[in-house]
Fold each of these.
Amino acid sequence: MAKGRKRSNEPKGRKITLKMAKLALKLTMDGKRRLDLSNMEIAIFPKCILKLCDVDELDLSRNLLKKLPNSIDKFVNLRWLDLHSNQLDHIPEAIGRLQNLHSLNLCNNHLSTVGLPSEIGLLRKLRSLNLGMNVLERIPSSIAGLKELRHVALFNNLLTREPDCLRNLPHLESVNLKCNPIPPEDDKGTGAVRRVECLYLVKESCLCASCLWKVKEDRRKVDSWLSEDHSHRKSRFSGMITPNSVAQEDQVTWR
């Protein structure tokens, strides 16, 4: 190493200037201002974009971000925040101050239970929450306060039970718990563990007539099989059923 040159501990990545950020501004079909900085090899949150904090949507997905600053709360108008496919292991408490947020995507990061703050339960307008492909063993109980929540993705985590905090959410339509080590109900206490390879929970009103008939027929067959085996599996989420994988086409967006 040359004399006098210091080794930088900062992660390597692309530097984003304000000019570059302004060029990345787009107008969505419904007239929202979106700042799209996805897939740009960004390793450090660009402070310059705080000057564009009046945007409605912010896409920082598919980058190299390891940290999100507290200044994220400057984006007071934000309705849509996409941070999927980064290297985040912690979300700041300031996330709870994004009171207009409707959609939050944190899929495919390094988030553990301690890295997800309880303040996420302050996002009262949140309708879609994607926490798939992390290392979560449980989720904050404060999520029970998200009364507008419609869709939750928790696939590919380390959950060993279905989260109690989701049971009484009035508008919940779908929960994706695919690929979690959730033990079967009739194997409690035995130490047996299985992986849930495909589990979607939806309201009956979300299914067409043919799909609803098929689901009920499959459920009848399963109940019949369980009764023969002298066991009975109770539904964990009132008013919801488990459809086949093709019952809702939009489920492909969670995969």
Note: Helices lie at 18-23, 209-228.
Amino acid sequence: MPKHLPTVAIVGRPNVGKSTLFNRLVGKKLALVDDRPGVTRDRREGDARLFDLEFRIVDTAGFEDEDPQSLPGRMRAQTEAAVADADVALFMVDSRAGIVPLDAEIGRWLRAGNTPVILAANKAEGRAGNDGVLEALELGFGDPVELSAEHGEGMVELFEALMPYIDAAVAATDEDEDESEDGPLKLAVVGRPNAGKSTMINRILGEDRLITGPEAGITRDSIAIDLMWNDRPLRLIDTAGMRKRAKVQDKLEKLSVADALRAVDFAEVVVLLLDATLGLEAQDLKIADRVLEEGRALVIALNKWDVAENPSSLFQGVRKALDEGLAQARGVPLIAVSGATGKGLDQLIQAAFETRDAWSKRVSTGQLNRWFERAVEANPPPAPGGKRIKLRYITQAKTRPPGFILFGTRVDQLPESYRRYLVNGIRKELGFGAVPVRLTLRAPKNPFDR
């Protein structure tokens, strides 16, 4: 998340529900709410979240036309300052009371400034606010967002209205920040016993830092070692070998495997080390599956390449088996290495950094929805029972791993095959590669359901 959050200022005459909306967006009752007008006097700020949008919200005093030296006049000056500093102003009116002269005056003042304005008609639940919503059009800010701050209705529509402004502000302030450059790359090395994990790490370090030998299971604790690789910080984590659960009888080995799984949870990228002399086994796929389930980025290394027989056909066979066995992350990087000779280790570390970059990547909502429109046009969603599934838009909710929210109607009936089509498109078209991608489906609430 960017260090500087975009700012949204809520403005309007007293008692239209500004503080109620503020409390809903920050998720706490920070602002006092009462039926009497003028309860809020100072600017109150909080960190707000609306689905994946994160921003700074400012609750302002009710805008009143008073002498600048009076208390209401000084409150108005605070409101003007908040709007001037904001990336977007949310102009709130009361749809039940209709538009009054003070609303029109606030509208004229907002139009004279440089801050973009979104008009919101609050208390629009039921039919009592219909006339006020129509009246709000005369303020000259286009169609108002109809919402109920008290009941939480209209939040999807508010999200749609705010999204372009928040997105633009994030892009402007976050242009020079790179999420992938925030500390050492935390790289855990996992695999079956005796795959050569400690030997490979010693070769990367250039010293015999870890005990190695022909016996399986020498490493018991997860060992973290910090180093610099091509002037970039790296934290390597060696883990105990993971055998099939049925074969793990010894209590100490059980603790070692549990420790290795914890190391996976704390890592950013996980290298699964295979033994080229043994090929790919079912246990390797289980380990890979566990890594992806935890949302970690995965790179696979084929070790002991210097002593492998028929290396070319072996590599192709492992590649094919991985793509079939790891359908949820087809195309995971596969690098041939040798812990004994050092072959391929530079490419392995480089692939790990590149994979973390993809794992940390954020795509702007505009770019994402341009891709989304093309994808839906090329392959429209099915119509189960003759009723269309309408997909409205998509947005990225998080990174590490990348998570997306898809908004639409009847999305609960979207087939798993279509969800896979979209996830594969996100990976391929938007540069996420083979990292795990989460896609959540969400439908706006219908106020008439009840």
Note: Residues 30-42, 176-181, 215-221, 245-257 have pLDDT under 50 and may be disordered.
Amino acid sequence: MGDIRQSLLPRDVLSAAKELLYHLDIYICNLVQSGRQPPQVDSKTQELVEEFILHAPKDRNTPARRMSALQELQLLEIMCSCFQEQSRDTVRQLMFSALFSLQGNQADESRMVLLGKLVSMAIAVGRVPILECAASWLQRTHRVYCVRLAQVLVDDYCSLVPGSGPTLQNIHSASPRFCCQFITAVTTLYDLTTEELTPPLELLQMIVSWIQDDPRLVLINFLNTPLSGNHPISSLDVTPLGGLMRWCVKAPLAYKGDKKQALTNSSTERGREVGPLFSALHLSVLQVLMLLPNILNEKGLYGRLALLQMESLASLTSDLSRLLDQADKHAPSTDTRALPQLALDRLAQALQVSMANGALLCSREDLRAICSRLPHNNLLQLVLSGPVMYYNNIHSPAMAFSPHAAHSPIASHPTHPPLPTHPPLPTHPSSHPQYPAQPFMTGMSFPFRPSH
């Protein structure tokens, strides 16, 4: 394609960009049809993209070409149409890669700006092919740039334009794969350490409703992607489960601004809204974890692939320890007195259900080491001391079972008589009657061994 440069130079910026997109489409179609593996856009084509679409000057003596706001809008519309009209997904993905794969040069900033505007427009006008290409881009790109794209979309649909949230809401049904990657990116972006890094209320409501409507949504990338053991550490996580768990555990102790206002069911209007949302999100995350044994067994990955990483868990417990120390320095009010225990209870529940369902692969000793700085919590103590329990139904008294039992020849041919049953242990009155029992823990007795 290098020979078309001379024909593009006399054209105005919009006409040149449109013409190059046309030739790029033809070039990639021919590349795919040739059967070359892997199909790869050559460096000369990349240089044309940078010069005539991203407007990076070819050399220092060449003035940069600039588009007006109207021309830029027209270019975005042309690109939307181009991807919509191309029926072959392989061609679309290669075109998207040629336009937006980061090259480590000065044109990358222009790539990111144009990408943010294109994906935002694709959400607004429902261009699913672009959203699918963007999902692949999020999967293979360094997380630093992924969160930048997520920030642009949150600003466009949750901050800058009031009432535009329902448009973003629709990506749940339009492109579940992009929606899953978007959730992973925003949970990476917002870590609840500052007011700026706390998810906007509208975004939180949206994510909760998405997962409640379809719990498998957060597993779509995992279900549809061939996984290897060398997942790049710089990429986004395979699922947003770790980020969502971090939100739920830290939320009761996350403070706002200088007033250190907790995100809880306090007397404030925001507290009344946010508290139940994080509770609903926590339950949804546990329900998603309950889906994993069958899925991991089907893929032959049970006990071999951890969807939650120990490094991420260690970072969470470290953050939680710091937040608990901060909470101790402030005289607790009636509304905030129970917050430390709520955060620790959620951590304990998440750890137990994660281990029981194969999402977290570690020993009790590893868990005790990671949680050693945390204050005592009855439920967390049970998790750190007792055996792994497998939960069959999150809404009813839990039954102990092994996800491997149905696939084990030993299970189908028992050689020992069943052990006699024992009467249940007597229940003890709760030392904290103000805390209602979690539904999925009701009726379950744990062997307790005090830690030394």
Note: The radius of gyration is 26 Å.
Amino acid sequence: MPHADFAPASAEARPLHLVAADRLDAALAALPAPARAWAEAQGFKAAAGAVLPLPDGAGGLWGALVGLGDAKARARGRFIAAGAASKLPEGDWRLDGETDPALAEETALGWLMESYRFDRYARQGAAKARLVAPEGVDADRIRAIAAGEALTRDLINTPAADMGPAELEEAAEDLAEAYGARLAVTQAGDLIAANLPLIHTVGRAAAPHRAPRLIDMRWGDAGPTLTLVGKGVCFDTGGLNLKPGASMGLMKKDMGGAATVLGLAQMIMALGLKVRLRVLIPAVENAVSGDAFRPGDILQSRKGLTVEVNNTDAEGRLVLADALALGAEENPDLMISMATLTGAARVAVGADLAPFYSDADADAEAIARAARKVADPVWRMPFHDPYEPMIEPGIADLDNAPSGGMAGSITAALFLRRFAEGTRYAHFDIYGWNPKPAPARPKGGVGMGARALLEAMPELLGLGA
């Protein structure tokens, strides 16, 4: 679906003033008399997200004010000014030339993300206000980031009936074609021969037209090697450990890891980062049929480790295991997995934070710094080695769902680390969904961690300034 873009520079664009509450008096004093009188009459206090169109004194529209709130509101919020995209009257707008450069960049990106609409099935009332790219910002970079985020949102928001493994493959094909990447897909009938048994086992119960596959995309021929692995469970019933209805309602988003790595890959390719990129997506549906895998089964993995199945609803780590083992065989300079993996992560940090795991302190610090800079919040979690015995059942090498209910996100991450052994590795346990609308983040599918990783790439991979 088309994504939002900036308005062309034009003398017709109206001025947009971003006003902090503690600078309101100075901001009002700088306005033309009719606009100032109107703002004072309306009692504008520059509350966070407040928008006030301003008259020109001749019955027309001169410009607008957007409140940023006080220091406390600004510390708590992000993309505060971006909500104006959905509140302002139709037309083109330009930021006041005195806007802080960092605020201008955040607002520009937030504006494009606020303007996103998922309108595949019904018209959503597109934002009519367009922003001229502020002076001094890298408009092409912002466009690329917003477009990658839009791709992620579109994929997650699409219902499972229209976003199964085959459709996820088509999305990867479209992306590869657009950027000259190479795509190879291991289809269901070849998964066993290709030594991808866990992907086959999890997906084998699905209908033939929703059969499992491994999507493998490569791009770039120079620079450090980066492998992105995304969980592509296009719908998760829970398998024979069937989820209750309330837990199944959002399972169209269980391919959010795949959607996020594809969005990140689009950003990387659009910006021409000097890396050799590989994207691996095990695309499956965890369905229920006579051929479904069972609790108590002991499964073989690509790496040779055996896995006891204690819950068929812990399937994401199984399909990721084979993909991680495949990726690790090339010993990339950095491998990252992204997955909507555990409810435990949501209990720990909620819907807004992307928890991640890394054994490398320098990598974790680089990701955290980048996340703060681009307002894409993350939180480091521990690969806590003393919990390793929790994933060792004795009857097999590994347990896919340790009993006890404790440390669920950590034990899942430890499980995945076994298959990424020998590589420099980070894992993101994301939610992929915004439960209520916020500036630049409408309710629905959302990318988490991708912008932070993109910002951190130069430091993580030594790409230079």
Note: The CA atoms of residues 29 and 270 lie 43 Å apart.
